[in-house]
Amino acid sequence: MKSGNHRKSGQAILFLVLVLLIGTVAVIWNFNLHRGIVTKMRMRDAGDGAALVSARWQGITLNMVGELNLVQAVLAAEALAEAEESEEEIEIVDLFTELSELNLLRRKLTLQGPLVGFAAAQQVMLNNKIHQNSSYSDFYSSLYYETYNAPSDAADLYVDYGSTINAIGDNGIAGRTILTRSSHILYDPGFYTAIEAGYTANWWCDFVLNSEYGYWLDSYSSPGDWPDLPDDGGYSILGVDVHYVGASLNGLLGSLTNSAPDTGELEDFIDDYNDTYDRDYVVDLDALSDIPMYWAIYGSTWNNSWQDFADENNLPFRDPIVEHFDYMGPEAIYEINIQMDETFGGADNITTRKDGEVTEWMPDKYEKNQVTRPERVGRSMRWVSAAKAFGFLDVDGGKIPSYFGIVLPCFSEARLIPVQRPVHDASVNPNHDFKHIPRFLEDREMSVLEGYAYGSEQCTACRNLIWFDNATVRSTGQSWISDPGNSDTCQDYGGGGGGGGSGGAPFGH
């Protein structure tokens, strides 16, 4: 009997140990699940808040630049009126000189204004306990930003712009912006992917499906063939897509292809603006209509339609977009990427908040109320948010901001907008975009790319361009494409919906 009781006792102990083990695993699993859910919520709040505050500052910047456009018109009208009273002729050169400081101020606002939003966004993320990301901080604090092809009268503004970005990076970065690119081929991530697929796997379908890639495969012969970069290097942090041109008002209005405004409508807008915001802008636009001046004008992205974009990508918008809000333009897009061990500490620089205190950068500072440092689990979480400044011109029931071409103060709010996640997942290394490409295009020497590709930076994108520069590699691709047995198998599956694939919408805010 004793031996039987001992056996039953031993079985009970084993069963109890098994129950405790399962319970412990369940508790740990629930803890990690809760931690992951809380982290995602915090990342969502931080990312959305950062995008919104940056978009609001983009709107503020545009309003200030638009106001200075009106101030310029007032000053020019006054100068013309004074010249007429004194029966003197005013030289256009003199008018340009008189307004040159105002033009520089507008340009500086265009560059620096959105950076205030970038700095504010970092504080928003800190307030949501998102830790500094050392790789982001290192990138922004050492960002190489040069004035390639910059206008000579504004070169210092671009140097100051780069210095401001460096200073923000020195304070530490919790989330990075998805940078605004130009349409330059060397800023297209897909181009590098196509080269790598061709060189490493002898698969050249991307050059069949994308006509621009195919053009470069057939026409490229040397580094001198690559197009020059735009004035600002082709990249900007939270840009507003505003450019400056010397032109008459009539010339600008007459060049618009999507509308047919006249100076009478613009005068009506100025009158309404005076009444709404207690201004006293008196402008004789007829007198100014043929006088060339520097104007801040909207770039081409402002004419892109949200409705067209939604239709092309099957975005499930609940209702048709209101006509005077149907424009795209620049966005404020933020990415937060944290390791799971950073969720409860573990970053190089971490934050804490005591009751009644404002959250601040607190590197290497550990206090009793600070979160603990768990074991590294080797997983990361990512969140992307996007927002945009919105407003409309109070003209004839409402017009989009770019209706007159020139920038005018009309932005009043910021809203979250859809993000096409796959596009931003496939970005080129920012150091390649900001540093390697400009330096390479300055000298057009392959040795510049070789230094980045095989030196300490180990730039994969540079290596792709070196492969593409090899005539034998390009010839291999052309031969592959010319074989119908290869090129006929290339299919463009597009994105989203339908059967197969990972499913789910590629868009979110």
Q: Which short descriptors sum up this protein?
A:
single chain, alpha+beta, 2 domains, two-stranded antiparallel sheet, 18 helices, disordered C terminus
Could you please describe the fold and organization of this structure?
This protein has 509 residues and is an alpha+beta fold. The chain folds into 2 domains: 32-183 and 236-421, no CATH class; 185-226 and 445-491, no CATH class. Helices cover 51% and strands 10% of the residues. It contains 18 helices and 12 strands. The chain has helices spanning 2-85, 92-98, 100-127, 134-141, 155-171, 189-201, 205-209, 211-219, 249-255, 263-277, 285-288, 306-313, 421-425, 430-443, 446-454, 460-469, 471-482, 484-487; strands spanning 176-177, 180-181, 235-236, 242-247, 293-298, 332-339, 349-350, 362-363, 380-391, 411-416, 419-420, 507-508. The protein has a 4-stranded antiparallel sheet with strand order 1-6-9-10, with helices on one face. A two-stranded antiparallel sheet has the order 2-3. Helix 6 crosses helix 16 (460-469). The radius of gyration is 29 Å and the shape is globular. Residues 342-378, 421-427 and 493-509 have low confidence and may be disordered.
